[in-house]
Write a structure and sequence with these properties.
Elements: H1 7-19, H2 23-29, H3 35-46, H4 53-66, H5 70-102, E1 106-111, H6 119-124, H7 127-131, E2 133-134, H8 145-154, E3 158-159, E4 163-173, E5 176-181, E6 186-190, E7 201-203, E8 206-208
Antiparallel strand pairs: 1-2, 1-4, 3-4, 4-5, 5-6, 7-8
Length: about 220
């Protein structure tokens, strides 16, 4: 998450410069015997990690370390928390707007097991996009989507990695989805589009994109 420079970071850096205080000395004043570890913890705090046990320890020692009133430290922390929360809301709003702009109605199969068996194999072979997604003809009106999904579900008696097919979900809009049984009876109206479990494959520290996963098995 791209967060702006935090007030607590600005305060610590400005006060350290005023005092001619090297970073290593700041770490020592904050109670760290292992200076390298202390520098990492201070950097984490200044970057927004304000709730860890180490953050509490640093906050307790900063007034003395920087020779500044605790009230000033507390104020900078509160401003930093407010800024982080504001950035989280902004990012969430941007992601929601992007999701809405790119949304297209779609469906998913439902199996008797919610958690996939052989979860690694499920993930590397395409995950939900391959094994659960129901293709819909969006050129036809939305009223036909349940019938389309039902026809697909009836041809799929077993959901790969999820057991016997027990129904399906149609996401009509970002804020409207309906769960159906195999007889196409609506059994639940959902307040938002259904998202099946998400899997990530990371090899050697690199995230493998869904389009690359089948290549893992190519020879």
């Amino acid at each position: 998450m791209n967060i702006r420079r935090l007030p607590i970071q600005a305060l610590v850096e400005a006060r350290s410069n005023e005092l001619g205080l090297p970073r290593s000395e700041l770490a020592r004043r904050c109670g760290f015997k292992n200076i390298n570890k202390g520098l990492r913890r201070i950097d984490q705090l200044l970057g927004g990690d304000l709730n860890s046990p180490y953050a509490e320890m640093i906050f307790a020692t900063l007034p003395t370390a920087l020779n500044v009133n605790k009230i000033i430290i507390d104020f900078a922390v509160r401003e930093s928390v407010d800024l982080i929360e504001a950035d989280k809301r902004r990012i969430a709003d941007e992601q929601d707007a992007e999701r809405r702009a790119s949304f297209k109605p779609h469906g998913y199969l439902l199996g008797s097991e919610r958690r996939p068996s052989q979860i690694v194999l499920f993930g590397v072979t395409g995950g939900a996009a391959r094994w659960l997604a129901i293709p819909l003809d969006l050129s036809k009106p939305p009223i036909t989507f349940p019938q389309q999904a039902s026809a697909f579900a009836r041809k799929t008696p077993v959901v790969p990695f999820h057991g016997k097919t027990v129904g399906f979900i149609v996401n009509f809009a970002p804020d409207h989805a309906v769960r159906f049984d195999l007889a196409s009876n609506p059994v639940a109206v959902l307040p938002s589009a259904y998202l099946p479990g998400h899997t990530e494959i990371i090899i050697g520290g690199r995230k493998i994109n869904a389009s690359d996963r089948p290549m893992l098995f190519a020879r």
